[in-house]
Amino acid sequence: MVTMLQTLLLIIVAFLGIPVGKLIAKNTKEELKSGRRYFAWISGLCLLILVADLFLSAFKAISFEDTLMTFAIFTFIFLLTLQSLRKANKLMIRK
Q1: How far is Cα 58 from Cα 80, in angstroms, rounded to an integer?
Q2: What is the number of domains present in the chain?
Q3: H-helix or E-strand containing 65?
Q4: % of residues, the chain, pLDDT over 90
Q5: Backbone angles phi and psi of 17, in degrees to 5
């Protein structure tokens, strides 16, 4: 059973994707240009998984704990790749 503290920690970890994504994007500018399409694919896949997770949760096919864990993990990954994708797009515009 997921406690309130675990839920809070999941949410915090998920939203840490924003500063972590900015840090990675800042330190890996060369890789951002060539990996831009992969960031887009990963972001789209994460969104698809999040929607499927919420859909399955709505029909009680999976438990709330599983939904929360999946949501936190893929929200983290989505935010991480979104920040890197934004930075890659900015670098492409500057050139």
Answers
A1: 26
A2: 1
A3: helix 64-94
A4: 0
A5: -60, -30
Q: Which domain holds residue 59?
A: 4-94
C-alpha pair distances (Å), 11 with each of 22, 33, 47, 73, 81: 18, 30, 17, 9, 17
Q: Report residue 94's pLDDT band, with 50, 70 and 90 as the boundaries.
A: low
CB-neighbour burial class of residue 91 (10 A; exposed 0-12, middle 13-18, buried 19+): middle
Q: How far apart are CA 83 and CA 25, in angstroms?
A: 7
| pLDDT, tens only, 42-76 | 888 888 888 888 888 888 888 877 787 788 888 88
Alpha carbons within 13 A on the beta-carbon side of 14: 17
52-58 contacts, C-beta under 8 A, 24 or more apart: none
